[in-house]
Amino acid sequence: MLLMQNDPFRDLDLLFRGGRSGNGTNAMAMDAYRRGEDVWVHIDLPGVSADSVDIDVERSVLTVSAERNWQREDGDQMYLTERRRGKFQRQVHLGDSLDVDGIEADFADGVLTLRIPVSAKAKPKKIQIGKSSDQVAIDA
User: Fold this and answer.
1) Which of 84, 78, 76 is nearest to 47 (CA)?
2) Alpha-helix residue ranges (DSSP H) falling in the chain
3) Helix then strand then coil, % of the chain, to nearest 5
4) Predicted confidence band of residue 54 (pLDDT cuts 50, 70, 90)
5) Beta carbons within 8 Å of 71's beta carbon, 6+ residues apart
6) Helices marked H in 8-136
7) Which residues contact 22 (CB under 8 A, 6 or more apart)?
């Protein structure tokens, strides 16, 4: 397996927690797919600045965390507060067949894009059959 979420019950938990993960942080919407020799991951982070995004890999677990804050000012009269604020985090287990040293990240228009190359050891290899001009006789 190339990529696996750490929490198989994430969607059910998010329903009951109002969009918050088990550790009190907000969840991030994510798409992941393989295209050619790479796995692509897109994570929605609307309203988050690039300098608040942190990406770590430890023991084959990719952790993306970010923070979006907006502070009310004295005298603000709130009518509606639906936009999530605070810490956001997402963890994904990277299989052995991915090259964690080759991960590239880009952040544009509120979307974090990660390109994770498939490891050379996981790619199929073609084995060539050599031709030998020397015939070896086997005595029985």
Assistant:
1) 84
2) 10-17
3) 10, 40, 50
4) very high
5) none
6) 10-17
7) 7, 13
Query: Considering only the top CATH level, what class is 3-69+85-121?
Result: mainly beta
pLDDT in tens, 55-76: 999 988 999 999 988 888 899 8
- Pull the structure tokens for residue 108: 């544009």
Tokens of residue 19, six digits: 């969009």
Span 103-116, pLDDT tens digits: 999 999 999 999 99
Extents of the domains making up the chain: 3-69+85-121
The mean of the pLDDT values for the chain is 80
Least confident of 9-18, 28-37, 129-138: 9-18
